[in-house]
């Protein structure tokens, strides 16, 4: 049997419980606050970073700026030996594509590219740590008769800028669309407020690909979002397919414990089989919808294409 680290002693239990009961759970990711409700065909692009200097500087000839948004209402994720359903996940960023080299630079919105709805871990803390033969953990497990103490909420958060976006891969199946570094925030009174799977320096890197072929469509529209077959803007939509990744690795947890010192890291890692090597984890996003939006003829707006895209996006904000 694995012994508890010396830094976690039974004498600490009373202090851990006292601190734990006073820690509230957050109910929504802060990065969602920057989203704007948008009209018409702008609707998916609620967080496009059109005012970022790199997007504004795109001239429409050498560099072309576009908005990218991908959304899924539900799915599942397996990390180690823990399987959970996912809530709605919304991924958005800007892209500046160099027409000479084909290189795409990803521009994240303020607050991070991904916003995930909080979802509950099945079994809560009992499932993550209990039962245990370690006395300090056994004592905590005995306290979990109240559902509010047992409940564990997981939220996917950005842990860096997405990389290697491939617009062509989004139109077919079996190819990586983009690399997305994330961390997963685990919230529970006993786990404290800084318990994460992955960190900004050692994130979980998801590389989703289409598991089925998406339906492809396009729409032209005016700056205010109104449909117009000769409009200034163009939206490409890829819908009706599942996306997933079965090749990512998962690091161990960090910062878990009501004192946020990582005093319960070992207990969570032991029960959930983390760290978990590549190939032992899995992500599936159901009914994914991915959109790209930008000027239909960016070259005609040179050298001010980036600024025109920004003005058009702001014209589409719902008022």
What report would you give on this structure?
This protein has 319 residues and is α+β, with helices and mostly antiparallel strands. The chain is 16% helix and 32% strand. The chain is built from seven helices and 16 strands. The strands form two sheets. Strands 1, 2, 3, 4, 5, 6, 12, 13, 14 and 16 form a ten-stranded antiparallel sheet that branches. Strands 7, 8, 9, 10, 11 and 15 form a six-stranded antiparallel sheet that branches. A hairpin with a 5-residue loop joins strand 4 and strand 5. The longest helix is centred in the C-terminal third of the chain and has 11 residues.
Please describe the topology of this protein.
Layout: H1 13-21, H2 53-56, E1 63-72, E2 74-79, E3 82-86, E4 89-98, E5 104-107, E6 114-116, E7 119-120, H3 124-129, H4 135-142, H5 147-150, E8 153-158, E9 180-188, E10 192-197, E11 204-206, E12 209-210, E13 215-221, E14 233-245, E15 253-254, H6 265-272, E16 282-295, H7 305-315
Antiparallel strand pairs: 1-4, 1-16, 2-3, 2-16, 4-5, 4-6, 7-8, 8-9, 9-10, 9-11, 10-15, 12-14, 13-14, 14-16
């Amino acid at each position: 049997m694995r012994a508890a680290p010396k830094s976690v002693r039974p004498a600490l239990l009373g202090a851990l419980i006292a601190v734990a009961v006073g820690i509230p759970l957050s109910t929504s990711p802060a990065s969602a606050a920057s989203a704007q409700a948008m009209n018409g065909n702008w609707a998916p692009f609620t967080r496009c970073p059109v005012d970022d200097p790199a997007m504004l500087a795109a001239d429409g000839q050498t560099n072309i700026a576009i908005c990218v948004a991908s959304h899924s209402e539900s799915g599942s994720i397996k990390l180690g030996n823990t399987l959970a359903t996912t809530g709605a996940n919304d991924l958005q960023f800007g892209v500046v594509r160099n027409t000479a080299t084909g290189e795409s630079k990803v521009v994240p919105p303020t607050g991070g590219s991904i916003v995930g709805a909080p979802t509950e871990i099945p079994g809560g803390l009992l499932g993550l740590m209990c039962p245990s033969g370690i006395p300090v953990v056994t004592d905590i497990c005995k306290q979990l008769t109240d559902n509010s103490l047992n409940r564990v909420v997981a939220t996917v958060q950005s842990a860096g800028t997405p990389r290697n976006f491939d617009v062509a891969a989004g139109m077919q199946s079996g190819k990586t669309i983009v690399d997305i570094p994330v961390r997963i925030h685990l919230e529970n009174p006993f786990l404290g407020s800084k318990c994460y799977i992955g960190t900004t320096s050692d994130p979980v890197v998801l590389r989703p690909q289409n598991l089925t072929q998406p339906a492809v469509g396009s729409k032209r529209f005016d700056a205010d979002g109104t449909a117009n077959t000769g409009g200034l803007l163009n939206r490409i939509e890829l819908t009706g397919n599942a996306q997933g990744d079965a090749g990512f690795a998962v690091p161990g947890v960090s910062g878990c414990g009501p004192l946020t010192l990582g005093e319960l890291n070992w207990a969570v890692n032991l029960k959930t089989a983390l760290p978990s090597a590549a190939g032992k984890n899995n992500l599936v996003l159901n009914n994914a919808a991915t959109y790209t939006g930008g000027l239909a003829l960016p070259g005609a707006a040179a050298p001010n294409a980036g600024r025109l895209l920004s003005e058009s996006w702001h014209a589409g904000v719902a008022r």
